[in-house]
# Entry
Amino acid sequence: MKVTYDPKADAMRISFSDDSTSTRTEELGGDFLADYSGNKLISVEILDASKKLPKGNLDMISANLHNFPLA
# Structure
């Protein structure tokens, strides 16, 4: 799993796979998007993340988790 946060876009991405080629994106509602490669869920994106998660934790989450290997 890899978690990244883009402060300019205020978006957090949680990737579950090394496969970064999305074949489709589905809106889940509430500014949540799911990316798929075929039928496999490869990532979830949270838009306006600072409104949904504590801002102070967003940079820490990205810095601490971005080096974890993907499952």
Notes: The first helix runs from residue 49 to 52. The two ends are 6 Å apart (CA to CA). The helical segments are 49-52, 55-65.
